[in-house]
Amino acid sequence: MAKNSNLLWHWTGTKSADLPSWITDEMFVGKISHPSIPVGKVTNAQGVTRCGKVTNGFMKALIRTSQIINGCDADGFGCNSQYGIAECTITGTWDDSSQTVGAGEVACVLYDYSTGKFRVSLGGMAYDVAKSSSAPLFLVLIGWLYINFTEFAQAVNNFAATKDVDEKRAWACYLADYVYIATSGQAPYFKIGDASSVGSLSATKMGSPIVKPDSVTGQFRKFPVTKAARNNRGKNSAKNGRAMPTDQFVGSYKFYDGDLDEAQEKMVPVIDDKFIVGQTLLSICKHIKGTTNRPRPIRNILLRGAPGAGKTEMYVGIAAGCHLPLYRFAANSTTEPYDLFGQFVPVDDNGSEAGKKIPIGQVLNALPSPEDISVDPVYAYQEITGLYKDDA
Fold it and tell me: Phi/psi at 274 (nearest 5 deg)?
């Protein structure tokens, strides 16, 4: 316990200035409770019980975990049967309401469950645990618990999803006790060494086959995470394939200014928690919004696959996430252009409607066909425009 406390649990009693305002000093001294959330209790060697309390390093790691499972733009965690890995950007602020991690050096962490030793690299340099945040160390432990223990994963999901600050505080304290128990000799037990047991992490070690994770969550920039691990993300957790809570996903990727009109609003899909927001859907929406101000923004998405593969549901999700009206057209070998374009509306010189709507098929039937245009372009041009042109 003494060594454990030196490395991870730095009980300061006050929060650091780079944490969000909803985190209060009461959370650091064990005075938080909530009627609908279990209160964690730890019994120390003298038989004294206390409510859950947090530390600055733990809260930064929990905030980053929340951002990761909600689909932020950087950082992640993963594990196999012996090793856990994590990437944690050391930023100036830690904000769980943002999907942008921010600028900073990336701390890469490797944890060996059999020995309790950490290896850490910060920007390619050694990590001074005496002067630096313990957040990266906590992140790798929280990630392992999240992937492997349903009870813990559900509590983290609750923390990440709630907008009620009282609930968020209570869940944070509950989770802090959970990790404290796990790092204090109680199941699920983590061996934790002292500060001197933290070694440097080389690029060679990061790429070693024995440390490659079976499952990952989040975005990795430094560890060479395999495609198989990415495909396996979340299969062992309580998320059931969720990359982000549905209520937080809806409308979060709106990329345009202004509002839709009444008719368009009615066409925006309404989805509830039964709709699972997967990583592919989340990535598509992030790219759609993220490329908005670029020269060639992503706006056209083509999905292919067998019937029943989920293509239609994916488009429903894209429309819900980007807050767009969804129009459905059936297309097959007999579909004509005017089946998609609708009807022709005659207008006068001022652009006002000047007659009954006419099916485009009826308009096109009275005009030269593509074959007519190819064979006799002069005639076709005159028929279409009313003007004769030798070089049409």
Answer: -70, -20
Handedness of CA 150, 154, 155, 157 (dihedral sign): positive
> What pLDDT digit, counting tens, does each position of 47-98 carry?
555 678 899 999 999 999 999 988 888 899 999 888 999 999 999 889 988 8
**DSSP code for 283:** H
Side chain identity at 392, as an amino acid letter? A
Q: Partners of 361 in the beta sheet?
A: none
Asked if residue 92 lies in contact with residue 183, where contact means CB atoms within 8 angstroms, the answer is no
CA distance 358 to 356: 6
Q: Phi/psi at 121 (nearest 5 deg)?
A: -130, 130
How far is Cα 127 from Cα 200, in angstroms, rounded to an integer? 7
CA atoms of 268 and 126, how far apart (whole Å): 50
How many residues are given for the chain?
392
> Residue 236 in contact with residue 148, Cβ under 8 Å?
yes
Q: How far apart are CA 119 and CA 254, in angstroms?
A: 40
What is the pTM assigned to this prediction?
Answer: 0.58
The tens digit of pLDDT for each residue in 85-108 reads 999 999 988 998 888 898 899 999
Measuring CA to CA, which residue among 60, 260, 331 is closest to residue 172? 60
Structure tokens at 43: 């019994």
**Structure tokens, 276:** 């699972």
CA–CA gap between residue 44 and residue 232 (Å, rounded): 38
CB 145 within 8 A of CB 115: no
Longest dimension (CA), the chain: 104
pLDDT digits (tens, 9 = 90+) for 160-200: 988 889 989 989 998 998 898 888 777 677 888 777 788 99
Q: Which residues are registered as beta bridge partners of 119?
A: 110, 199
Cβ-based neighbour number of residue 202 at 10 Å: 13
Dig out the tokens for 124 from the structure: 């390619």
Tens digit of each residue's pLDDT (9 = 90 or more) over 103-140 = 899 999 999 988 889 999 987 777 777 778 899 999 99
